[in-house]
Every structure is written in C-alpha cells, then in structure tokens.
C-alpha cells in the first residue's frame, strides 16, 4: 500500500541557496514516526518510493488490522515551519465466522408445529460490520428479524440477527440458513440447520366391515381406524367405553397412513357400546379421536321369578317375572300348573345394553288348590330374536295336631339321675318340628323320628337342683303355624345343699381367748330341709367333739325352690384352738351324701415365745450368725424392741443387728458379748425373752514382760497375761523352743509367771503362748538379754572396701553385744579416733535389733594414701571390746556367690539361696542362669538384688541346671558358679519322681511296709521306757536340788552359787524384781526366799562363774562378735506394762533416755533359720548335728523341705507358680519382712549377710517397747531348756 505525500514548490533560492526540507511520516495509532528522511533536494524530498521530486510515498506491505488509522505527512522548512497533511488507512476485515447461538450448525432442529422458534445467528469480528440474512430452502426471510451489533476493542464488529418464526408442518425437512455478507471484501459465510417439525396426523376415520351399525348377536364385525400424516407417525389405539382395548397398528410409509383394525363377535352386551379410535404421536399433545356406536339385536338371556316359595293354605300370593336385557324388548306370558293365563300388564325398563320387561301375577290358593300341596308357575319372555322361560314352585302349608309328652310321673327323683322323655305330634304339611325347652333354655333331643303322619322326639335330661319345680316344654311347629303348639310337664328333684356357710357374728367379730364365742351355720337351699350338726377338732385325739347346736329358722328358699336352714353353736375358745377348724355338717336320710364346711378359728391372744428355757448363742470372733426367735401372737406382734444388758437399742449395736424377732451379727467382735432381751407386744399383751450371746475369740497376749536385761546370775521374773473367750485353765503358758516351761500360777486362766536365773545359756527369746482352742494360738516373744561384751560380725568381704580415686568408699562395721555398744573409727598407725563428721569422713550408727548394732563410715576423695592404710573399727562396752581392720582398694570384680542351693521346690517353681561375697566396691545384683536338661533352647536368665530367688515357669518332672554370678553397678561381673547345681521339679501330685524311682528300685512295697511296721512297734516300746525313766530321774533330781538349796550358803569364792526363783541375787543382796507389781500379780508369788519351802518346792540352777551357756540365736546374737554395752537394768524394770511408760518415780525419764531405744523402722535382721541344725555343747561351743564344726562352715544340712519348715520360722509355705521370680518372699507365722542388706560387704546395701539362707524374722519382734497396736505374736523357737527345772 502506498501513501503519497506531494510537496508544493515554495519558491526559488533565497540569498543564493535552496532551503533544506525535512519530510516525516507519522501515524496516530501510537503517535510514532513511521519514517524520517532529511535530504537536501532541489524540488522534492523522496523516501522509499518517489515518483517525482515533490512526492514522498509511504509503502505498507502485508497490511494488518493494527495498521488501520490516520497517517500524517509532515514537512519542515526552516523559513516556513512545519507543514502537515493527513491520510487515512481503512483496513477491511471480513467476518471470521458465522454461527448459531445455542444451536449447533449442520444438525437437525426438532420443533413442534405452531411453536415459536427463537434462533440467533452471529457474524464474528468483521470490519466494517457484516450484513446477516436468513433463508428457508434458499428463500430470503425479511419478517420478524431483529439485528444488533457489538463493537470490539480492535475496531471489528460482531453482528447479530435473531429470527422469531413459527414453523408449520409444511416446513418439515426444510433447511434454515444464516448468511453473513461482507460487501467491502465480497465475503459471504453461511451456516444451516435442518428443521424437523413435529405435527399431528389428520383426524382418524372408522370403517365397519361385515355389516352396518346394526348387527345381530354372534355376528363377526371388523372395525378399521385410519389416520393420514403426522410426524412422527401416530399410534392408533381402540377404546371401549373409554377403556383401552389391546390391539396393534401399522404404518404405510408410501401413503403415510396409519391403520389399526379390531375384530369382534358381537354379543348382547355390545348393544349401545361406543368404540373410539385415538391418534397420538407426542406427549403433552391431546390425542385426536373418532368414535362409533354399535346396535346389536339379541333375545333375552334369562328370566327371573320373584315370589314366596311357601304359602299357607287359603292365602293369596303374588309372583313377579323379570326378563333379561334384549333388543328389541320382550313380551312376557304365564302358565299355572300347565294352563296358560291371560296376558298380564307389561312394564319395560331401558338398560344400558337393551330393554328389560317386568310382569306380575296374583294367585289364590283357595281356588287353585284341590288335594295338591304345591303350585307350578311358568314365565316366558319372547321377542323377534328368540324366547326364554323359567319355572317357580310354591308349597302350600297346613298345621299339625297338638303335641303330647310321655315318661313323667309325680314321684320326685334324686339330683344326678337321668330323666327320659318323648313327645309326639300328628298330621300337618310339612310334619311338625318338635323342640324341647327347660324354661327359656333349649334342650338338645337325642333322637327325632317320623312315622307315617306322626313326628316323634326324645330327650334325656340329667337332673340337678336347678330343675326342681321346673316345667319341661315340648313345642310343635311348622310353616302353617304362627305360634307353636305346646305340651308341658313339671319335675321335682331331691338335692343336698351346694354350700354350707359358717360365720362369726358381725357385731362381735373378734374371738378372744377365754371369752364366749358363737358360730352360725347357714344352709341356703336344699330339698328337703337339712339336718345340722357341729364337729370341733379335739387336738391330739383323732375323734372330733360333736355338738347339735340350736336352730334359728327352717323356711322355704328362693334358690331352686328348696329349704333354707340356719343353726348356731356357742363355745369358749383357747389358744390351742387358734388355727383349728370347726365343721358344720348338713345331712338328710334321702340324700346320698352330706355337705359340710369348715371354719378356721382366728383366736386372738397375747404374744408367746415358742422356745422353752434360756437361749445361748456362741459364735466365733469375726464370724456371722443369724437367729430367728419364734414368737407367736394373734394378731401378729405389733412391735419388737431389743435391749442389750438392760439398755434398749434400735436396729444395730456394735456388729449385732436386729430385724423384728431376728437377731444376727456380721463379723462380730468380743464387745458384742452380752445379754440380749427381746420384748414383743400386741394389743392383747406382751412377752420378753433373754438370750446370752458369747463371742469366742482366740486368746491373745495383752501384757508381757519384755525385754529384760540382766547380768549373769541375776534372777528374773517373766510375766505374761492374755485374754480370750472361752477362758481355760492352762490357756497361757511359757515355751522355750518346743518345751513348755512350768507356770508359777498353774491355776490361773489368764496369766503365766516364769522365774529363772540369767545366764548366757538361757538368754534369748521366751515365747508366751496363749491358746484357748479357738483359732490359731497367739505367740508373743519376751527377750531375756544377758549382758555380754561386743563381738564384731565377720564374714566374706567384711574386711574389704573399694572405691575409685577421687571418689568415695563406704566401710561398714556390724557387732553384737548386750547392752549397747560404742563404735570408734581410726586410721591404721594413728592413735587418734575420728571424732566428728568432716569433708573427708562421715559416719553414723544405728541399732538393728536388741543385740546387733552397725556403724557406717564414708571416706570421701580417695587418694593413694587411703589405699595404703587400713581403717580400724573398734567396738566396746563396759564388758569388753573388739576391733577389725578394713582395707580399701580400687574397684574390682565382685566375688563369685557361693553355696548356691535349692531351699524348696514344687512342680513349677524352685526357691534358691546363696551366700554373697565382696561386691567390688558398688552395689551388686545377681544373674541366675538355668536350662532344662536335654533342651535345645538357650538358657534363661533372671536378675535379682537379694540373696534368694524364685524360679517360675518350670515344667513338672524335669531336671534343670542352675548357675549364678554377681554383677555390680560398675558393670563388673564375676564368673558363673561351678559346678552347676541340679533342680528336680516335682510331679503334679507333689512327688519327687527321681527319689520315688530310686526307692522303688531299692525295696519292694511289701518289704517297706513290713520294715516300717516293725520300726513303729520298736519306737513305741522305746517311748514308753524313756517316759518312765525320765519321770523317775526328774523326781530324784528335784529332791537332790532341794537339799542343796537348804544346805548351801551364798558363796563369794565363785565355786557354786545358787540362783533363786525370783529376781536377781548377787552376793547376798536382796532379790530385785524384774517387773513392778501389778493388779494381776499375786503377792504370794514374790515371797521372801526364806519362806519358799512353806509355799513350794524350790528349784536351783547351778551356774559356773567362770563360764556361761549361751543359746546361739541370731535373733539377737552372733557367735563371731561380742559387743559390750553398759545398761542400767533398773530402767527396764520401771516400764509400766499398761501404757509402755515409766513408773511414778521415773516419770521424768522418756524412751529416748533408755539405753536401748526401739530399733529404727528400716532395721533389718540376720537369719535365724539355719539354727535348726545347730547344737549347744556342754563346753559352750556351737556345732552342727552332723558332727561338723560351725566355724567356717558354709553349708546347712537340709534333708528335705519338710525339715526346713520345722525350723524356727515355723511352716514354710509352698511357692506357687504365680509368684514373681524374685518378688515378695512368703511369710511365716512371724510375718516376715523383706531380707536385710548385707553387713559383710562394706559398700553393698542390696545383699544379705553371708550366712543367711531364708527370710529373717521381723524387726518388730525384737522391739524393746510395746507397739502402739498391741503385742505382736511370734512363733515358738526350737531351743532346749537350760539345765535344771524352771518353776
């Protein structure tokens, strides 16, 4: 495209030169310069295209819509200024697309005929705007078109044309075209739609084949319906009386005609039927209809007769005849008994499908009847198409003669008999129907018969009282009678009364003991009148007492027409009569049975207790009881009140509760003992009964003298008091081991007193046993503590301690002594003691039990000097001293535990124990490894911190190998113990199968039985001989010692000194009582020794002043340590037994002032179970019963679990499989606490002492003072008696 710019000549040279001209093209699209040229020219400026010097052309190639706009040519001259000229470039753009809105091009558009079509066509993005036109099959449409334009931002225009058009069926299949014409560019774009106009067919027509509208019934007729046109082709359906008829139609594509034919065989019901043909091709558009009405000629199908079927002789009757529908209408004619009659009046009725005719005829039986009993009538209906007739029979009725009843005479009959009656009636048509009645009740006949002109009926009637004076009626009836003919007979029945009524007078309803009472007997109805008698129960006798009574009246009764009788009797009731029966008997000789009724006497009387004599209830403590006291009264007891020991209470007192006459108790206590009285009341009086309730409870120790500290040779008194129900002589006794000691007051029920000389041999626990036969015996231990010097307890690792450099080490020192002990720590080579806690040394002491004490020293900041010198632990009291040196070294591996053994075994569990060693400088635990013999599985392991463990989950009748090693907190371990021990688990019956097999192999069963039988016989003989010799020797010994006491004087040379029965004697000083006098102490028990012979035989214990016998009892003593402490025994003698305090003269002394305060709560004790195998020798040394020495021994003989259970701990319970491997240990009668920490390892709190085998007794049993909760109980210890008898 070229744009020209012509420059007019402006003139010639000025001042001898041509002016410079500048030509610029610019456009107003973006106000930018299109091209710039500055040249010096003579006439014109040229750029790009120049046709002449005065022209400059702008050429635009490949014109775009963006190039549309105004262009300006500018020329500039220096002498004139700018000169401009504009040119316009108009870019023509044809429409990009022509399309229908909301419709897709080149598709078929479906539209109903007569529906307005609104369709819009658009020509998109043309410049200038395109012209939109509509065509139908190429024919331009100008009407009902609306056009508008939308201008785009790029200067193009979108043109729209909306067509509103109502197509008809002639427009079907025509093409609707939209054309966008752009004249500037000669562009024409088109898009088209094909119209599918939906329209209805022509109204259908109906043709009849086989006849005209009027046809005869049974004729075959075809109806043809036709409908031309329609898009889509219509469906043609037949309807009969507006109900659709199943049919099919077909469409003729060539002629575009739809046809539906329907054939039928006409019937009378088709007369007047309207057949209608419907043409429909679209939903919502009403169907086109055409109808035809048929006329069918047919005869009447039936005749119906209406009239009586029976008529009484001499009456008249009317019969109606109605013909069925017919076309044309019918004519009705009659015949009577075969003879025609004149034509009767006719009445026609128009029906939906024809005409019905009615006619009536009236008959008089007087004229028509001769000897006949019926009339036959025939009705005929006739029209041009045929005839129909129907017959009707009328029966003529006549009455019978009156009936008569046979079988009844005037004699009365008994109730229960049967009466047979018959009734007859002659003549009548039909024969009479006979019916029986009793009053209004109809009776059922047993047989009805007919004999010639006679009707008969028989009935059997069971007689009862309701038929007395009742008439029986026979009724004869047939259709000829308006009312039945009746015959009647009256029946008389003898019957006893149905009920007898016995009652108490209403004005005096209460029957009270001792007051006259009256009963009335009434017989409401009987026939004849009843005879009355009375029978009273006579208690134990089987024969009742008979009374006649007095008659009040004898009169006729309205009930069944019998007789009513009333009789009364008077008597005086007693309490025994309450609940008994009085019978009223009604009888008569004419009756087969009698009738009676009983009256239960309700005699009112005050309460009475059924139980005779006192009531006593004995129940155990903690048990429950329930007793219901039977109290009889009428009326019932109105109120129950209870009192205990004379004081009333409501419902509950203590553990006893009451509910009415019931008394019971739940978990009763001794305080519930007492006299309980029940008071029961009613309106006629009251009664009370008392019972004694005794609550039995086990005997329990209420006071015991413990502990007693004495010097060797002192005489002491131990007293024990107990309480329990029942109280028995000998209920309280003293035991030493398994031997019973003699009580000073044998006649006492609640107290036992023991006197003995204090020696090391008889020091230790003395058990007071309280047993009254109820529950388990109560064991309470008293301790006789004999003063002794301290002795350090030495065991494995007790002389070693360990700790890292810069760390700390713990040294522990444990000693045994009576009384207290002083610990002193010092360094080897240094005479000075460690007196005070410092940053280097910390120490503290504690008492573990009555005779065991412990001191712990901590050394902080260890260095080489601490490793090179030992530490001395010294213990002392006023009787002696002892010391031990403890070396300190670096941490090491712990020692291998030793003496691993099986304590007890069951089918699934095993209890193990062992002796611990040095822990290497830190707390240690123990790893137990065990494996079943022959098992391919890996060995199992458990870890425990004590020196006992329970293995669980074992299998019965198996062998397990067990080893143990120690592991401390530093991770150091010892080797496993060797050799591994074996565990033989029991079978499910608790039998060691391995031992049983050995026994069975060794001896036969017969041999074993014979052997044991002989052994038992020998043992019995030996026991008898030993008992005899023992009693003889004891009697002799007592006599000898009595003489010694009488002849010997107190000696100071120490050869032999007598020990008196009570108190302590020293160098001729008076005896010192070991306990203050109490209200329960008999003064005669503490008499002067000079008067002993007048009271009892004195017993003397000989004690050598140079030695002592001491029972080895770990409860308070260890043989390896002798610790001495100084104690004033007078403190313990001043302790009051009632409140644990001090006597009046010692009231300023508290427990803290006593040298032996109660051990700390967490104190733990050493084991005592090993000493069932230890014997005390005559020289004061300790040995085992197997002959070995105790020193250095690490083995305790345990032949069997049974032997273990008979030690000091009492019975050892079986360990069940549900206990943990190292859980709580079982408790014995001593209520064992967990095991103590090991005193032999100076840095280990978590293990036991080296010689322990089983859980120790509780710390409480060694307490110096009485516990707040009362006296604790312990088991008896297995200790021998000291030499000599204790009284």
UniProtKB/TrEMBL annotation:
Keyword presence, Flavoprotein: no
Q: Which GO terms describe its cellular component?
A: cell-cell junction; plasma membrane
Instruction: List this protein's GO terms for biological process.
Output: cell-cell adhesion
**Which key words are in the record?**
Disulfide bond, Glycoprotein, Immunoglobulin domain, Membrane, Transmembrane, Transmembrane helix
Where does the Fibronectin type-III domain lie? 896-988
The record's SUPFAM superfamilies line, in alphabetical order, gives: Fibronectin type III, Immunoglobulin
Q: What does the record give under GO molecular function? A: cell adhesion molecule binding
Any coiled-coil regions, as ranges:
none
Q: Which CDD domains match?
A: FN3
Query: What Pfam families does the annotation carry?
Result: C2-set_2 (PF08205), fn3 (PF00041), Ig_3 (PF13927)
Topology relative to the membrane: Single-pass type I membrane protein
The regions listed as transmembrane in this protein's record are 1008-1029
Localization of this protein: Membrane
**Where does the record place the Ig-like domain?**
1-90, 95-194, 204-293, 299-395, 402-487, 497-602, 607-694, 698-786, 790-878
**Record InterPro entries:** CD80_C2-set, Cell_adhesion_signaling, FN3_dom, FN3_sf, Ig-like_dom, Ig-like_dom_sf, Ig-like_fold, Ig_sub
Q: Record's PANTHER family?
A: NEPHRIN (PTHR11640)
Name of the protein in its database record: Nephrin
